[in-house]
Amino acid sequence: MSISAADVKKLRDMTGAGMMDCKKALAEADGDFDQAVEYLRKKGQQVSEKRADREANQGLILSRISDDKKKAVMMEINCETDFVARNEEFQNDAESFLNAAFENDTENTKDLLSIEVDGLTIEKHLEEMVGKIGEKIEINNVVLITTDGTLISYIHPGNQLGVLAEFDGDLTDAEIGKDVAMQVAAMKPLSVTRDGVDSTLVEKELEIAKDQLLNEGKPEHIAEQAAKGKLRRFYEERVLLEQKFVKDNSVSVKDYLEQNGAPLVKSFHRLQLGENA
């Protein structure tokens, strides 16, 4: 099939790979972008995770946590420009929507929009804000967590990234919890443990690792064993408790928690502007 220059450029923007490599990958994949990315990875290309078609949303990530650290809400509200996101009135409105979600134990955006604040539903408030400001404004994500353990909230300066981390027991040192929440913010783990990683993703990573080794000329039986080693490294990079602790690379996150007598992480939620819409 004919591969257009625009498609080649798009794949290059998505992956950072060379133009000719992108053209060949698209030809091999019959124009399918996901398959083309997979082809590049199998050929050993270092593929960037960015996506050219990702919308650069602006807005705020906000959270509220109860005094006993047993309940927390995190919310993403989006607008079109950073100028609006920094506006005090916009921020105050966003805080009032967050409080409504917290006080009503709201688990999703649809339910939040129907809640009344000062005599109007939040949906109506958003419509009025759009009319007044002249930008598209919407609430894209609401996360509610309740626990018998301990919840820690971390909002990165600038309010473009936030994390809620749930610990499986009483966490007496909030700084330890903040360290782990910051780890989630910085290192983007897929899950707390290996069991939480999608099995299809694991199979694909194993296949890609094996094909890379075969393309390097390794025999089949050696490629299979070495691929398992690469999979272990994948887990160390993408599973929270196995990741190297960012403040001390000599220990894993699990080691850090155990050394400090802290409970392990049970779950986490990470919101970044524009990534979870």
Task: Explain what you see.
45% of the residues lie in helices and 21% in strands. Strand 3 (116-117) and strand 4 form a beta hairpin. Helix 1 (5-15) packs across helix 2 (19-28), helix 2 (19-28) packs across helix 3 (33-42) and helix 9 (199-215) crosses helix 10 (220-238). Strands 1-2-5 form a three-stranded antiparallel sheet. Strands 6-7-10 form a three-stranded antiparallel sheet, covered by helices on one side. Strands 3-4 form a two-stranded antiparallel ribbon. The chain is an alpha+beta fold. It folds into two domains: 1-49, Helicase, Ruva Protein, domain 3 (Orthogonal Bundle); 58-193 and 254-272, Elongation factor Ts, dimerisation domain (Tetrahydropterin Synthase, Chain A, 2-Layer Sandwich). Residues 48-56 have low confidence and may be disordered. The chain is flat and about 70 Å long.
SSE topology sketch:
Layout (H helix, E strand, L loop, with lengths): L4 H11 L3 H10 L4 H10 L15 E8 L5 E9 L2 H4 L2 H16 L5 H5 L2 E2 L2 E2 H12 L4 E9 L3 E6 L5 E7 L6 H14 L11 H17 L4 H19 L5 E2 L2 E5 H7 L5 E8 L5
Antiparallel strand pairs: 1-2, 2-5, 3-4, 6-7, 7-10, 8-9
Helix pairs in contact: 1-2, 2-3, 9-10
